[in-house]
């Protein structure tokens, strides 16, 4: 088991390295961009920092024969002409790796928040993503499991049919479509809740009400998923031979369900909950953008639209790492929850 865990972690880091390396090289083949809508001094400060980090060649005189003339940035400040040339992509790549491993420097934003470290931008948006997603999980997990248990214990009855029908309808609606309707109906028409994420200076009641629309939109899909999963697993367990044996030994239906059925049905359900807890860090890109939540999902969309490649690289690293390690936790949790399962055994 220990060898398997170490192997999976090493493979995750190797996969992360390969994905980020390919992403960096492909992004650097795109045309270089510089900060827009700022003063020449701010542009110059950004380009000089890029040069010191090893991505550009800086000179106050034209360098004949160096690099691609199309990639040249010519900037005039205080009657001084500054020339910047793209270094070869592989030189930039090794400079990027050196900056990460020696200074934990992932680059500087040049569009979303000019001259601010990309990692600082991600960390500033992370609390907003965590707040919304953690609340949605706290709501979704118990409700989904309870509805699944109720449906399983009333299999093929009216209660089961009603729950199954509602789950089928709601699970087919994407969260970004659902939040659009919620904003339109409860935000603009009824005016019960804010139509966007409350600002920092809003009142406490407004901030609390601001959670309702995004949390409902995020949690409904999870509630439906847990309900279906719990119902399916519990129905299988209730029809098993060992549960019938438990009933013949004198246990009541309630005792048999609580002591045996639920315990065994939870084995495949709990790992999915653990994986989702880890996955909350990645947030919901489209939903955050629609409700104007300043989380890392919104940062990713902004970086993509504004072609902020440095910030996009950090976002890619963050989302990839969360996805890889969530899958590891999902696999390993089976062995911890059920002693009969041992990962890596021959």
Index terms:
single chain, 346 residues, mainly alpha, 3-stranded antiparallel sheet, 67% helix
Biggest sheet, in brief? 3 strands, antiparallel
Average per-residue pLDDT, rounded, comes to: 82
Approximate helicity band? 55-70%
Q: How do the SSEs run, as a string of H and E?
A: HHEEEHHHHHHHHHHH
State the strand order across the main sheet. Answer: 1-3-2
Strand content bin = under 5%
Helix tally equals 13
Q: Specify Rg, calculated over alpha carbons.
A: 26 Å
The rounded distance between the terminal residues' Cα atoms is 11 Å
Shape descriptor reads elongated
Protein described:
- This protein has 346 residues and is mainly alpha-helical.
- Helices cover 67% and strands 5% of the residues.
- The chain contains 13 helices and three strands; from the N terminus they run ααβββααααααααααα.
- It has helices spanning 2-28, 40-52, 89-103, 118-153, 158-171, 175-189, 204-238, 241-248, 253-265, 269-279, 285-290, 296-305, 309-337, and strands at residues 56-59, 73-77, 80-86.
- A three-stranded antiparallel β-sheet has the order 1-3-2, covered by helices on one side.
- β2 and β3 form a beta hairpin.
- α10 (269-279) runs antiparallel to α13 (309-337).
- The mean pLDDT is 82.
